[in-house]
Amino acid sequence: MKSNLFHFKPYGFINLNMRYFILVILVTLFTGCSKFDNSTKNIALVEKYVQAVTSQDTESIASLLDDNYLGVGPSYGDSIRKPAALENWKDNITNLYEKIAYNKSRNAAFTLTEGDNQGEWVSNWAELQITYKGDKGEVTIWANTIYKIENEKIVQSITFYNEADALRQLGYVFINPKDL
């Protein structure tokens, strides 16, 4: 006589309808969660923007910025909209920058769900090496730019870097006017 005590039938205790129900729940959970995580796509967008900057491609820069783009920084109170930002890039590429290199660049994507700045963001930390045209020199700076992404476009950027350090590397000297 054969004993069924140790005979195991996987999922034998769950009927066929229950198996389909569990499968539908699992598929919904996995696909539902992934729909809202645009981290990889948003980082790829910022990497395209960085590539456009390094190749000094203003057409690509324009295509990646939303029409309502707002750039903020590096100084307190600095802000610029898309048309002026594109004109600045064109002018700087023509008259100022020989080369912009991102020697080190790291990205992190995150989502703010509360407060004034809700949305999907990508932070880019970079060591930038900027070579100026003519005999103006070269600087290496640490920069952090945080990009807000909506509908696969950059709608806002906030940039931080030490402007005084860049000017010091170019040979500028800071003098307090009281000492003149």
Q: What is the CA-atom radius of gyration, in angstroms? A: 26 Å
Structural class of the secondary structure composition? Answer: alpha+beta
Oligomer state equals: single chain
Characterize the main sheet: 6 strands, mixed
Count all strands and give the number: 6
What is the overall pLDDT average?
Answer: 88
Low-pLDDT residue intervals, each spanning 5 or more residues: none
Number of helices: 5
DSSP strand content: 35-45%
Order of helices and strands: HHHEEHEEEEH
Helix amount: 25-40%
Strand order within the widest sheet? 2-1-6-5-4-3
Tell me, briefly, the overall form: elongated
Distance between the termini: 109 Å
Task: Report on this structure.
- This protein is α+β, with helices and mostly antiparallel strands and 180 residues long.
- It contains 5 helices and 6 strands, in the order H-H-H-E-E-H-E-E-E-E-H.
- The chain has helices at residues 16-35, 39-54, 58-64, 82-95, 163-169; strands at 65-72, 79-81, 97-112, 119-132, 138-150, 153-161.
- Helix 2 (39-54) packs antiparallel against helix 3.
- It is elongated, with a radius of gyration of 26 Å.
- It starts with 15 loop residues before the first helix and ends in an 11-residue tail after the last helix.
- The model has no long low-confidence stretch (mean pLDDT 88).
What's this, in brief?
With 180 residues, the protein is an alpha+beta fold. It has helices at residues 16-35, 39-54, 58-64, 82-95, 163-169; strands at 65-72, 79-81, 97-112, 119-132, 138-150, 153-161. The chain has a six-stranded mixed β-sheet.
